[in-house]
Amino acid sequence: MPSKRFKKLPKKTTELPIETIDKLLSVVKKNCTTKFDESVDLSFQINNKQKKSEINIRTVVNLPGGTGKKVKVAVVCEESKSSDAKSAGADIVGGDDFIEKIKGGEMNFEKLICTPSMMIKLSKLGKVLGPKGLMPNPKLGTVTDNLKKAIMDAKSGQVEIRNDKDGNIGVSIGKKSFADDKLIKNFNAVLETLEKEKSNNTVKGDLIRSAFITSTMGVSYRLKLGKSI
Q: Which of 28, 53, 96, 187 is the most interior residue, by most CB within 10 Å?
């Protein structure tokens, strides 16, 4: 049963005329009637069913306005690089012993970064890390010798973008408390990343079929695409 709070929110919002993000942000924020700082979320439906292949997007985007979330970053590396990882801001740093802890189910982190030489050992834990989306990946910049950059990216507002089997992509662009211009910058960064993915893949027609914006506990509105200022 919908809560009393939810019943007070606008009805049939997805049937309203499609609008740009700068017009919808104030409306979405007005619907944030919970006591916590709700996230502002985007939902895309992409054209992933192609005649010759199926489009699978998995990449990262650095949100210039940040995410408003504290990310716990773990690093698997050689002992000689552990001090560099710690000084760069990693919350957990380890080598073989840490890999054994992960194997045993100890995964109290949101992001895992690994050096290439240690990835050989870590790759054996695909069944443990894969389902949780924690397996480091060179394409996502999480298998690297440049630990400082990878850690800083993870801490400063990097988010992953990937579609499910039905072509849905969900990504948060910040919090209700963010200024509109910061949320718009993050929105533009997401669109730029998806545009690059369209160029990297053979997509017939538009990559994005539809887009919606909502808050964590709010209602959805149809979103007109195109960069905003």
A: 187
